Amino acid sequence: MEKFSAKKNSKSETNCRPAETTSIFNSCRGYCFAISGPQSPAQLVDFLVEHTKKIHSSPHNDWEIIPTVGSTQSWDSCIRVFCDPGDTILVEKYAFTSAMKTAVPKGVITLTMEIDYSGIIPEMLEEKLAKIKSSGAKLPKLIYTV
């Protein structure tokens, strides 16, 4: 059974994390959470890697962590890496506005997909991709789903 350390903060909330990661966290938190420029501090990345290994037990061996300031920066990076102006991406009907406002100025075309309680409807996805392919247009490079 894994040991957890509990620490009360000023709002009387309990913050629990495994005891093994507590010492790593405490040793780097003053430095890691300071402004560090475009590169993440090595100590923060080391902490996140160790935490992920111990807590989440990834079945994969070849993974890395790239810390970002939030999901919009991550999405922006994906668009910049994978898309060129004029490329198409598929998006759920009710996608986050910030995600669409990140894609459109880069010249990326968004095609809306109908969804149900489980997300994008597979038959609709198949149908839309078949139409795109038969028209001779390039297939979408990404699917944005929540």
TrEMBL record:
The keyword Transferase applies. Its cofactor is pyridoxal 5'-phosphate. GO terms for biological process: aromatic amino acid family catabolic process; lysine biosynthetic process via aminoadipic acid; tyrosine biosynthetic process. One of its GO terms (molecular function) is 2-aminoadipate transaminase activity. InterPro entries: Class-I_PLP-dep_aminotransf, PyrdxlP-dep_Trfase, PyrdxlP-dep_Trfase_major. Keywords: Aminotransferase, Pyridoxal phosphate, Transferase. Belongs to the class-I pyridoxal-phosphate-dependent aminotransferase family. PANTHER family: AMINOTRANSFERASE, AROMATIC_AMINOADIPATE AMINOTRANSFERASE 1. This is Aminotransferase class I/classII domain-containing protein. It comes from Saccharomycopsis crataegensis.
